[in-house]
Amino acid sequence: MPPFRQQKQRYSAISDEVKRQICEWEKANKNKRHVDIANHFNEVYPNLTIDRSTISKILLQSDKWTAIINTEDSSKTFRHKAVKFLILNQAMNLWVENVTAGGVILTDLLIKEKAKIFAQAFNIQENELVFSNGWLYKFKQRNNIRRYHIHGESESAPLASLPEERTKLQQLLSRYTLDQIYNIDETAFFIKCHQVKHFQPNQFQDSGKRNVFYTITNQ
Q1: What Gene Ontology terms describe where this protein resides (cellular component) (predicted)?
Q2: Which residues contact 157 (CB under 8 A, 6 or more apart)?
């Protein structure tokens, strides 16, 4: 008789959107155990095989997954490729949060130019990282920065205060001179140069005279 071999358990690939649903459902059902949550979503999604340990791992990053916006991309995203230059990505994330908290509207050009400045500050060589349209697309996808159109003046209501993130950014940038960091006047210059396509991380409704839609999640 051939030796018995235990079959390896197969795990399903779970999309970002399903992970968001799991975290939201757990918040609404605090009395449920992780095994109960797994059973619930195995019934909702019969094609998935989710166990208790998977639920536990997902809930450890609940803040990250609940920040996901339900989009076509989130339903198709299963894995996140590791960022090559983590310190650059962290600096850009904090910068985005900081400038948008002050009502600054992001543009493709502004994002690329700021990334180049950070890359120089972190001694990242030009042949190591190219700020192409592909890089820009992935950066906006990671940070859920969506495009919208502005009609008329580009007024923008400020986001909720982010003191902790601002402190982190200040600590990170304290090692560099002011001429390496754009001030608000330079930022305003780039905004005026691009009046059609803009990006803003967060979702809130404009209370002014025009219809403007902002989309985001803070990860």
Answers
A1: nucleus
A2: 103, 204, 206, 207
